[in-house]
Each structure stands twice: as C-alpha cells, then as structure tokens.
Amino acid sequence: MHGPLNVKLLFIFHPIYNPPFERVDSFTCLSSLVTRDNNFSEEITNRLIAANRLYFRLKCQLKSLLLSKKTKMFIYGTLVKPLLTNATETWTTTNKDERRTSIFERKILRRMYVGRDTTRIRTALQ
Q1: S-S: 71 plus which of 38, 42, 61, 67, CB 3.0-4.6 Å?
Q2: Exposure of 41 by Cβ count < 10 A (0-12 exposed, 13-18 middle, 19+ buried)?
Q3: Rounded (5°) CA angle 57-62-65
Q4: For residue range 75-120, what is the model confidence (pLDDT) as tens digits?
Q5: What's the Rg (C-alpha) of the chain?
Q6: Dihedral Cα 86, 89, 91, 94, nearest 10 deg
Q7: Cβ-contact 17, 53 below 8 angstroms
Q8: Domain locations along the chain
Q9: How would you classify the pairing of strands 8-9 and 26-29?
Q10: pLDDT per residue over 27-60, tens digit each?
Q11: Cα-based distances in Å from 78 to 28, 66, 82, 122
C-alpha cells in the first residue's frame, strides 16, 4: 500500500466544493520551476546557479592546457550549456534575463580561454 498522495496545484477555485489540495505559489516539476504568475526569472536564476556549480566542478578540466580547445568546447556544449538553456524556447524572457544568461556564457568562455584572443570567444558564442 502506498501512503497519501501529495498533490500541489497552483490554483483551484470552486465555490461549492473545497478540495483537499494544497495551494502553492510555485513548485518544481520535471526540474523546472513553475510559478503562479508564469515568471521565469526565478527559474533562470536557479539554472544560472546550477550551471555555475557544474562549471566549478569541471574547472580543472576546462582550464587544463592538456585538453584542446575543441574538447573544451565539446565539454561546455554538452554539459554546461544544456543545463542552462534546456527548454528556453518556451520561456517568456525579459531583456534583463537574456543579458544575465549571455553574461554567464561569456564569463565561462572567458575563464576557459584565459590569456587567449577574446575575438574567438565572441565568435564561439554565435
């Protein structure tokens, strides 16, 4: 037998029937934050934090002189960037949110290529 089912809904309104659901302002579903007002700024902040943590776990590999630029870009493109940009096509973002994500990407690429030509970093982003 299973225990009681925990169900969270953003909003349910029925004037006669008061269901036993918990009313919440936000919840996490499939590792994405869902809010009542459909604000993605919190989700972007959470993803920036997670991507930053992942970068610092991979810092030694990404700064290593033994790995080629191509390998470093492969690691960045397959691990860090998808964590940050997964399902971003469905987000309604503001200019501030877009600026924050692009600043983060440039910061990571700059750290990977310390002392190297910055024009290559700009072209790698595009």
Answers
A1: 67
A2: middle
A3: 135
A4: 988 998 888 888 777 777 788 888 988 899 888 888 887 655 555 6
A5: 20
A6: 110
A7: no
A8: 39-125
A9: unpaired
A10: 676 667 777 777 777 888 888 998 999 999 988 8
A11: 24, 19, 6, 19
